[in-house]
Amino acid sequence: MSPRAVNFRAGNVIYMKGFRNSYVYVLKSGVVSLNYQDIQTGQEDQDQIRTGELFGVKSALGGYATDEQALALVDSTVLAFTVEEFEQVASSNTRIIMKMLKVYSNQLRRIHRQVQNLLSTGDSRNPEEGLFSIGLYYHNTQKFRQSVAAFKRYLIHYPAGKFLNEVREKIDYGESMYADTGTLSSAEGYSSGGGNIYSFDEAMEYYESGEFRKALQLFSKIQESRSPDSEESALRVGVCLFRLGRGSDASIRLTDFIKKNGQSQYVPEALYYIGECYKANRDTEKAISFYKKALSMSDPSQQIYILITETLQRLEGESR
């Protein structure tokens, strides 16, 4: 199967920071900006991708979440390779391998430069102050999940620390920003059950590694909570049921998700997996209708858009 050409208008996001990307992209035309956070200053910086250059390589091949946002600066067309397609092309084309090495080289130089700058500042803060400053940075940038995690780690390592009162206040405030009722105790914050600050990431790790039964258990718990992750967890419950071969249950859950979350960004993905349920039952006509509905509601900047397009192209090719 050949790579898909996907068009993005100026200002469209190709993928978000923290996104689990499964495609390697080659810029066919236009200009793309990779926006990332400088580890030294905390400020946003960017690299520009030009025609013929690769991006998304590290995330796709390594299975990591992206550490940058890819943004089309002008109307652009990119070629999206699955990992398998890219490996096939790269194995027979040394130019592709050299381009990939250049991507890694540029990223390593960027990180090396930032680390060198950090080392040259002569920062003499002790570990307690360093851990507190990490939590304070996330708190001030309103990334409360990360700030609470850092401050709770501070409580573990420095139970009588000089920032103790301020840390406790900021934990209470941070938890109040993503939980409507009460605050989590330190034990709850580090447990693997319930809707706590770690469970969603843990659930996603199981989900991405194909351990759908374990993922389903955690997503079900988070769905019942009032955490910010409950909406996506409700979707993932349906997807996990489908992956476990429970297509009928999955279709019911996903339909219920759409009814309750009609304006959610995850509706196209829910529609896609309802289509997958019908396809698994060999009702291709019904499946295609759901795929097309999902496609009409998705945006080219969403990863699901590429997946839907690929599925439709394959089905339409099989029906010819």
Radius of gyration: 22 Å
Task: Give the H and E element order.
Answer: EEEEEEHEEHHHHHHHHHHHHH
Decide which structural class fits the backbone: alpha+beta
User: Order of strands side by side in the largest beta sheet?
Assistant: 1-8-3-6
Biggest beta sheet summary: 4 strands, antiparallel
Instruction: List how many beta strands DSSP finds.
Output: 8
As for the CATH topology of the domain at 4-119, it is: Jelly Rolls
Portion in strands: 5-15%
- Poorly predicted ranges: 118-124, 180-198
Notable features of this structure?
four-stranded antiparallel beta sheet, alpha+beta, 14 helices, Jelly Rolls, 320 residues
Can you tell me about this structure?
The protein is an alpha+beta fold. Among the domains are: 4-119, Jelly Rolls (Sandwich); 127-190, no CATH class. It has helices at 57-62, 83-91, 94-119, 127-140, 144-157, 164-178, 186-190, 199-208, 212-224, 230-243, 247-260, 267-280, 284-297, 303-318, and strands at 4-8, 13-15, 23-29, 32-37, 44-49, 54-55, 69-72, 76-82. A four-stranded antiparallel sheet has the order 1-8-3-6. Strands 2-7-4-5 form a four-stranded antiparallel sheet, with no helix packed on it. Helix 11 (247-260) packs antiparallel against helix 12 (267-280). The longest helix is centred in the first third of the chain and has 26 residues, at 94-119. Residues 118-124 and 180-198 have low confidence and may be disordered.
